[in-house]
Design brief:
The chain has 289 residues and is mainly α. The chain has a single domain, classed as MetI-like fold (Orthogonal Bundle). 71% of the residues lie in helices and 0% in strands. Helix 9 crosses helix 10. The C terminus is likely disordered. It is found in: Cell membrane. Its main location: membrane. It comes from Paenibacillus gyeongsangnamensis. This is Carbohydrate ABC transporter permease. It is a multi-pass membrane protein.
Length: 289
């Protein structure tokens, strides 16, 4: 009797593997489900029931509270602004530099590639970077976030590797037809590089959306602080069913959980639109590298 399937795996082996995967899936899903359910619970139920997974009384008060909270909405708008502008700026800078470094006729190309790799391995540190931002009068400005995170070396290297594998025949044909270098990049290379561009746009968007340390380091104006800083301030309140900050703002557990959902939802909404490009873009960049 054959106890192995067509791939040579026994039923017992497959049962153990799938059982472990299901167990890990449940462990991952449980905290997410708990956060979602807690955000819909009423304050009374949280106080009286203690720990529970599914609320008996569903309420949208936590979400309504956050929407009516001017500090939260201001932080949300700041994060949207930082993410949108920062992603466009970083992708523009990274794409231009990667395209230039992919050309063998560029003078000093080897030295520039070495400098990019060097910054990937070594950093000047937080204090020199802060002093540089301060001397450029960029403190308390969004440009302190955009310029310090304009180009991530790893992203640049992968995109450059993809451009290096671009068919030279297409470029030569475009140049013969009188296409300029910028026109070649804009009209031919970028449309054919959409998977890679979409993939690393998502990488930059996640990086800017999760901005926390750089924000508290360079931004002093509370009206410019992003959502992650505001979320940290909410979660930093001591545990309890009802807390009041020094500003008189109440942060119940339901409100905190709702804030976590608000923080995660934008990226979850964007990701499905880029998913079809994600795997293809990451694979192309890594293989051609």
């Amino acid at each position: 009797m054959n106890t192995y399937n067509s791939r040579g795996k026994s039923p017992l082996y497959l049962t153990i593997v799938y059982g472990l995967l299901i167990l890990f899936l449940c462990v991952e899903i449980f905290p997410i489900l708990y956060i979602i359910m807690m955000s819909f619970a009423s304050k009374k139920e949280i106080v009286t029931r203690g720990f529970f997974l599914f609320p008996k009384e569903w309420s949208l008060n936590a979400y309504a509270y956050l929407i009516d909270n001017p500090n939260f909405m201001r932080a949300f708008r700041s994060s949207v602004t930082i993410t949108t502008v920062g992603t466009v700026f970083s992708m523009t800078m990274t794409t231009f530099m990667a395209y230039g470094l992919s050309k063998p006729w560029l003078r000093g190309r080897s030295m520039l590639n070495f400098m990019v790799l060097f910054t990937m391995l070594f950093s000047g540190g937080i204090i020199p970077l802060y002093l540089l931002v301060m001397n450029l009068n960029l403190l308390n400005s969004y440009w302190s976030l955009f310029l310090t995170g304009a180009i991530i070396p790893f992203n640049l290297i992968v995109i450059r590797s993809f451009f290096q594998g671009f068919p030279i025949e297409i470029e030569e044909s475009a140049r013969i037809d009188g296409c300029s270098e910028f026109g070649l990049l804009w009209r031919i290379v970028l449309p054919l590089s959409l998977p890679v561009i979409a993939t690393f746009s998502l990488f930059y968007a996640v990086e800017y959306w999760n901005t926390y340390f750089q924000a508290i380091l360079y931004l002093n104006d509370g009206s410019k602080l992003p959502l992650q800083v505001f979320l940290r301030q909410m979660l930093n309140v001591s545990d309890g069913s009802q807390e009041v900050t020094e500003n008189g703002i109440e942060f119940s557990p339901a409100v905190r959980m709702a804030a976590v959902i608000f923080t995660a939802v934008p990226l979850l909404i964007v990701y499905p639109f880029l998913q079809k490009y994600f795997n293809q873009g990451a694979l192309l960049g890594s293989v051609k590298g």
